[in-house]
Amino acid sequence: MPAPLTAQQIALYMSKRRAGSRQEVAAAAAGISVSSAHRIDSGRLQPKAAKPRGRRRPDPLAEVWEQLLLPLLERHPALTPTTLLEHLQEQKPDQDWSSLKRTLQRRVQHWKALHGAAPEVMFPLTYQPGEIGFCDFTRVKRVAITLRGKPFPHLLFHYRLAWSGWAYGQIVHGGESFVALSEGLQNVLAACGGCPKSCAPIASQPPAATATAATPSTSPPATRPSAPTTAFPPAATTEVSPMRTALSRHRMAM
Q: How far is residue 107's CA from residue 213's CA, in Å, rounded to a whole number?
């Protein structure tokens, strides 16, 4: 019975065939028969998978893994191999366990992969210039705003572009309303020179105490360059007319 083909022989034969050699020439170069070459070309011959290598020496942690280390890991899965190694040295000081540090690290890593807590999965969000802006109403926290010594109840309409970090704030007298939202959007789109493709409400963070209301910030975060104005579509589709704003105020007053 002929010896089974190795993966190297099959790879050499396939490389010769891709180079343009005939079947007989490629088979002779790889040291295989023409019938084996025909089976390779027809997809009926695959290399045998290598057998997994077993342990070639006794497990050095066999006596202590089940008795001492595994119960600790089950009670405290956050323990590190270094801590377990120190505990093992305290429990069995008659033996030097420092040479088994790498073996213990692999054993703990394998155990945590099978029985440990599931790792957190995070999906980073990336935005393009002019793609989306966020707006919402917020309150100034940790800062007391007063007028002539009396508290000044108000909200801030906060708008922020996702890519550049360009932000805008506007004082809103009273509570949240459609009129305040439309006025804030109208003013912010006029200030930035255009509108993004979409705008979504989101709970915004409290602005800094030194920020001036109704003044867009001119220093976006250093990690992001300022988004160019030309990246925004025209703002005509989201503009709110002054007539409609005045009519809405009149209806709310009634």
A: 59
Examine the pLDDT at 163 and tell me if it is beyond 60. yes
Contacts by 157-161, CB closer than 8 A, 24 or more apart: 157/181, 157/183, 157/184, 157/188, 158/204, 158/207, 159/133, 159/134, 159/135, 159/184, 159/185, 159/188, 160/133, 160/134, 160/135, 160/204, 161/133, 161/192, 161/196, 161/227
Phi and psi at residue 171, to the nearest 5°: -70, 135
Query: In the chain, where are the structural domains located?
Result: 7-41, 64-115, 132-253
Q: Tens of pLDDT along 31-54?
A: 888 888 888 888 776 555 556 667
pTM: 0.36
Three-state DSSP string of the chain: CCCCCCHHHHHHHHHHHHCCCCHHHHHHHHCCCHHHHHHHHCCCCCCCCCCCCCCCCCCCCHHHHHHHHHHHHHHCCCCCHHHHHHHHHHHCCCCCCHHHHHHHHHHHHHHHHHHCCCCCCCCCCCCCCCCEEEEEEECCCCCCCEECCEECCCEEEEEEECCCCCEEEEEECCCCCHHHHHHHHHHHHHHHCCCCCEEEECCCCCCCCCCCCCCCCCCCCCCCCCCCHHHCCCCHHHCCCHHHHHHHHHHHHC
**How many whole angstroms from its chain centre is CA 207?**
26
Tell me the C-alpha distance between 32 and 91, whole Å: 60
